[in-house]
Amino acid sequence: MKLVTNERDILEEEVKDETQQSELESANEAAQSDESSSLHNEADDLAVALEKVKEQEAAIEEKENKLLRLQADFDNYRRRARLDMEAAQKYRAQNLVSDILPALDNFERALKVEAQDDQMNSILQGMEMVYRQLVEALKQEGVEVIESVGQPFDPHLHQAVMQVEDSNYEANTVIEEFQKGYKLKDRIIRPSMVKVNQ
């Protein structure tokens, strides 16, 4: 009977060992499954994190491009403002010159009148002094008379009001000036009114 007991003990030991072995294998499988699941979760988390990084990089790049465009727009605005200010300074007298030119024309017409006595002569001399002061003040501002008579006709500088045929002049040449033209620095204030040879 002792032998049977021993066999039973051995069997029980074997069953116990098998059970333990089975439990160990189950535990290993569970651990491997957890590890695999954990690795899978980490991979998913990493993919999500990479996606967020790409989105952030794209957003940063878009903001940088926007910033560069704004900087360029601001630089263009500053340049335009500076050019406008320079032009305004350069041509600040344009409106005043335009308003004074008809008075200058009237002075020139008045100075062509023949003086018949000393009183009229002294009035003309006074008018001529005022006329010269006006012309000098305009020159200091950069106003110049446009040369016309004997010059080739230029539609930017001259306004043709008459055309004639005169063999003494070359074709397309200004023969006579009816009204002086003026320019302020490089801008035409008023073109000359002229007669042109065909």
TrEMBL record:
Chain intervals for the UniProt region annotation (Disordered): 1-44
One annotated GO biological process: protein folding
The organism of origin for this protein: Bacillus mesophilus
Annotated gene: grpE
Pfam family, one: GrpE
GO cellular component, one term: cytoplasm
Positions of transmembrane segments: none
Presence of the UniProt keyword Chaperone in the record: yes
GO molecular function, one term: unfolded protein binding
Biased amino acid composition, Polar residues: 21-40
HAMAP family in the record: GrpE
Subunit structure: Homodimer.
Function: Participates actively in the response to hyperosmotic and heat shock by preventing the aggregation of stress-denatured proteins, in association with DnaK and GrpE. It is the nucleotide exchange factor for DnaK and may function as a thermosensor. Unfolded proteins bind initially to DnaJ; upon interaction with the DnaJ-bound protein, DnaK hydrolyzes its bound ATP, resulting in the formation of a stable complex. GrpE releases ADP from DnaK; ATP binding to DnaK triggers the release of the substrate protein, thus completing the reaction cycle.
Subcellular location, record wording: Cytoplasm
Chaperone in keyword set: yes
Family to which this protein belongs: Belongs to the GrpE family.
Protein name per its UniProtKB record: Protein GrpE
Main localisation: cytoplasm
Domain of life (superkingdom): Bacteria
SUPFAM superfamilies: Coiled-coil domain of nucleotide exchange factor GrpE, Head domain of nucleotide exchange factor GrpE
Keyword line: Chaperone, Cytoplasm, Stress response
InterPro entries in the record: GrpE, GrpE_CC, GrpE_head
